[in-house]
Design goal:
With about 190 residues, this protein is α+β, with helices and mostly antiparallel strands. The chain has one domain: Nuclear Transport Factor 2, Chain: A (Roll), CATH 3.10.450.540. It is about 35% helix and about 20% strand. Strands 1-2-3-4-5 form a five-stranded antiparallel beta sheet. The N and C termini lie far apart (about 50 Å).
Amino acid sequence: MRVHRTLGLIAALAALAFSTARAQTALPPVDPSACQIAPIAMPVEGEEGDLSTPVPKPTPISQESAVPADDATVTAVTEVIGQSIACQNAGDQLSMLAAFSDRWIAQLFSGYDRVFYDEFEQQASLPATPLAASAQVMLISVSDIQIRDDGASIATVVTRAKGVEQTSLLLLIQEEGSWKIDGAEPVS
C-alpha cells in the first residue's frame, strides 16, 4: 500500500514537473551570433523641445485588465526580447533598435534624449563589434507575459550585466505584424 502511494506521488510530481516545464518557453540564445534581426535605417533626429523644464517622468506601464498570454504570444514576445539583447551583445545598435516600436525609437532621439543622437549616429556608423564576454547582457528570465485589453503585451524580464541583476517590466505592441518593445521600466 505504501509503495503504491509513493509511486502515485512520484508520478503526480513528475506530471506536474513536465506540465510546468512544457508551459515555460525556453529562453532564446543571446550571444552575439544569435542576432538575426535585420537592422533598421538610421533613426531621424527628433526635436529638441524645451530643455529648461524638468525631465518628464514616463507614464507607468499599466497592468490593469491584463490576462495571461497564449502560447504563440509568449513565444513571439520572448523571441523579440532575446533578439534585442543578442543584437545589443553583438554591438549592432540598428539591429537592436529593429526590436523597438517606431514610437519608442522616435522618443529615444527627441527631447532630453536628443543629446545622445550624435554619439549614437557615430557609433552606429561603425562596423558592429561584439561586446566583451564580461560586458554582455545575460537573459535570466522572461515571465508573467500578459495581454492587456488594448492588445498590448507586458512581460517581466530579468537580465544580468556585469554581475548586476535587473528586473524590468516591458511593454510590447504589435507593429507591422510583429511584437515590438514599446517601453520599459525598472521593477523594484
